[in-house]
Write a structure and sequence with these properties.
This protein is mainly α. It has helices spanning 25-36, 62-68, 76-90, 93-104, 110-118, 126-138, 142-148, 152-163, 169-182, 185-194, 201-210, 215-218, 226-234, 237-250, 253-263, 269-279, 282-288, 294-307, 314-333, 348-354, 359-366, 371-383, 389-398, 401-411, 432-438, 445-457, 464-483; strands at residues 11-12, 18-19. α4 packs across α5.
C-alpha cells in the first residue's frame, strides 16, 4: 500500500516574479481521494513510521476514523460509505458491533449502515451476523425498531433477514422477540409458514393465543397454569384483546379454565362465562357461580332456564333443576307490576352494560365532556372488572353526579359525603333486597341463616312483590345449600381456624344430618 501526494509546481513570469498558482478543482479532489484511497501497487512505497495507521482490519485506525467521520460537504457522504463498505468487507465481529453503535448514536449514514447490516448473511458472514444481532438483543432492539418505524424498505429488509435465519434456538428467539415487541403480522405469518416454535414456552404460548393457535398451549403440560400466567403478564393490550377472542372461539373448557385461573383478577368474568357457554361446559359454568354476585347469578339461571342445558354432575344438575323451576315462577308473580321504564325509554344501566366498547371507544367515552358518556364508560368498565376500587373511590368523591352514582353503585359503600353537595344521596338500608343484591355467592353461614329466617317470615306473602321476594330467597338459599354443604369441620381445638366459623351452640337453627 502506498500514498502519492501531489505538490503544485511554481510558475514564474518573464520578470522573475512568482506567479500565484491556482490548483484546479478536479486536481484538488483527486489529491484528497489519492491521500485517503491509495491505489494498491501504484507508485513507490512510503516508509511506514507508524504501522498502526494502516491496519485494514480495525475501525479504530486514524485513516478509517477520518473516513468514517468525514464531514466534507461535497464528497463526505461518498467517503463515509466507502468506509462502511471497507468495514463490512473486513468481516470481523467487532466492526459489526461498532457499526451498529454508530447507527444508534445518529451517524450521518445511519440509514445506510442499518441497510447494509440487515443484508448480512448468517451463512456467508456468521461472525458479523451473530455479533450484530447479539448487540441489538442487548439493547432490546431499540435502535433497530426506531429505524423501522417509518421505513417500509427497512421493514422489508428485516423480514428478508429473518427469513434467512436458521432453525437454531438463538435465531428463533430473535424472531419471536421481534414479533412480541413489534406485533408485526408479517413476522407472525413468517413464523406460521416456517412452523417455528419459540425456545421459551411462555413466549410460544403467547404467540399461539394471540395468533389464534391455541394448540401451542394445549399440547403443553401446565398443571398449575404458571406458563399461561407468565404469557398473559407479558402480553400487550392489543395482544390481550386477540387472546380474549381466541379463548372465546376455542370451545375448549380446559383452555377457558386455565385462563380463568392464570389471569386472576385481571380478566373479564364475562369472557370466561361466554367461553364456557360456547364450549358447552355447564359444570364449569356452575362453578363460576362461586364468587359471583347474586344478580349476575340470576342471569345465568335465566340462561339455563331458556336453553334447558344442565350440568352433568348429578348434584349440580339437581340444584339447577330446582332453581330454574323457581325462577320460571317469578314472572307470574309480577304480572301486575308496572314496568319501571316508561314506554319508549331504556334502562340506562342496562344500556351501558350491554355496550361493546373497544379500548379506543372506552378511552374516548371516558374523556368525553358529556358526564353521562363518562358515567356510561365507567359503568361499562366496572361491570367487567376493568377498574379498581381506588379509581372508583376517587370518582365517587370528585366526579360529576352521574359518575358518582355509578361509582357508588359498584362500591356498595356508605361514605361520608362532602357538605353542601347539591345531590341528595339515598342512605343504604339493611333490607332483605339490599342484602340480596350485595351478596357474593355462596356467602357465609351467617348470611345463609339470615336468608333462611327471612324466608320463614314470608311463608304467606301478601302481595306479588312479596311473593317474588320469597322466590328470590328460595333461589339463593338453594344455591347456598349446595355450596356451603360440608363446610363445617370438627376438631379438638378451642380456636376456630376460619374467620367465618361459628360455635355450634350459636347455630340453633341449623339442622344436622349424619
Amino acid at each position: 500500500m502506498s500514498t502519492r501526494i501531489y505538490h503544485p509546481v511554481d510558475k514564474f513570469t518573464s520578470k522573475g516574479k512568482r506567479k500565484p498558482h491556482h490548483r484546479p478543482a478536479a486536481l484538488a479532489s483527486y489529491w484528497i481521494i489519492s491521500v485517503y484511497f491509495p491505489s494498491d501497487g501504484a507508485g513507490p512505497p512510503v516508509k511506514q513510521n507508524n504501522p498502526e495507521r494502516i491496519q485494514p482490519h480495525t475501525m479504530m485506525t486514524n485513516r478509517n476514523r477520518a473516513l468514517f467521520d468525514n464531514r466534507l460537504p461535497v464528497i463526505g457522504s461518498m467517503l463515509r460509505r466507502k468506509a462502511i463498505a471497507r468495514l463490512l468487507r473486513n468481516d470481523t465481529p467487532d466492526d459489526a458491533v461498532k457499526l451498529a453503535h454508530a447507527a444508534a448514536k445518529g451517524h450521518p449514514e445511519s440509514g445506510e449502515i442499518i441497510t447494509r447490516l440487515l443484508q448480512l448473511s448468517p451463512q456467508r458472514s456468521p461472525g458479523m451476523h451473530a455479533a450484530l444481532w447479539s448487540c441489538w438483543k442487548q439493547e432490546q432492539y431499540t435502535s433497530l425498531k426506531k429505524k423501522l418505524r417509518n421505513s417500509t424498505e427497512l421493514e422489508a429488509l428485516m423480514l428478508k433477514a429473518l427469513e434467512q435465519m436458521t432453525d437454531s434456538d438463538e435465531h428463533s428467539m430473535i424472531i419471536f422477540t421481534l414479533w412480541h415487541q413489534l406485533d408485526n403480522p408479517a413476522i407472525a405469518e413468517l413464523i406460521r409458514r416456517s412452523r417455528r416454535h419459540a425456545p421459551s414456552l411462555e413466549l410460544d404460548t403467547l404467540f399461539g393465543l394471540a395468533e389464534h393457535e391455541p394448540d401451542r398451549y394445549l399440547t403443553l403440560d401446565d398443571p398449575d397454569c404458571s406458563i399461561l400466567e407468565k404469557a398473559l403478564l407479558t402480553a400487550s393490550p392489543a395482544q390481550k384483546q386477540r387472546i380474549n377472542t381466541t379463548i372465546l372461539n376455542s370451545r375448549s373448557s380446559r383452555l377457558v379454565k386455565a385462563y380463568d385461573r392464570a389471569a386472576g383478577n385481571s380478566h373479564s368474568p364475562e369472557l370466561v362465562i361466554d367461553a364456557l357457554m360456547s364450549a358447552e361446559d355447564h359444570d364449569g359454568l356452575f362453578e363460576q357461580l362461586r364468587g359471583m354476585p347474586f344478580p349476575r347469578a340470576l342471569d345465568l339461571i335465566a340462561w339455563w332456564s331458556a336453553t334447558g342445558a344442565r350440568p352433568s354432575d348429578p348434584a349440580r344438575k339437581a340444584t339447577i333443576e330446582r332453581v330454574t323451576a323457581i325462577y320460571q315462577a317469578i314472572p307470574d308473580t309480577l304480572s301486575g307490576v308496572r314496568e319501571t321504564a316508561p314506554p319508549g325509554t331504556q334502562d340506562a344501566l342496562l344500556f351501558w352494560q350491554q355496550q361493546n366498547l373497544t379500548g379506543k371507544d372506552q378511552n374516548s367515552a371516558s374523556t368525553s365532556p358529556d358526564p353521562l358518556q363518562r358515567a356510561g364508560a365507567l359503568h361499562h368498565a366496572a361491570y367487567r372488572n376493568r377498574t379498581g376500587d381506588r379509581e372508583l373511590r376517587l370518582i365517587a368523591a370528585t366526579g360529576s353526579w352521574p359518575e358518582q352514582l355509578v361509582a357508588r353503585l359498584h362500591l356498595f359503600s356508605n361514605e361520608t359525603f362532602r357538605p353542601h353537595e347539591h345531590v341528595c344521596w339515598l342512605e343504604s338500608r339493611n333490607t332483605i333486597e339490599s342484602r340480596l343484591l350485595s351478596t357474593i355467592l355462596p356467602g357465609t353461614v351467617e348470611e345463609s341463616q339470615y336468608f333462611l329466617d327471612r324466608l320463614d317470615e314470608l311463608e304467606h306473602p301478601s302481595d306479588s312483590a312479596r311473593k317474588a321476594l320469597k322466590l328470590m330467597l328460595e333461589i339463593i338459599t338453594t344455591l347456598q345449600g349446595h355450596f356451603l354443604a360440608g363446610v363445617i369441620s370438627v376438631d379438638d381445638h378451642d380456636d376456630a381456624p376460619h374467620d367465618h366459623a361459628i360455635e355450634t351452640e350459636n347455630a340453633e337453627h341449623i339442622s344436622w344430618e349424619s
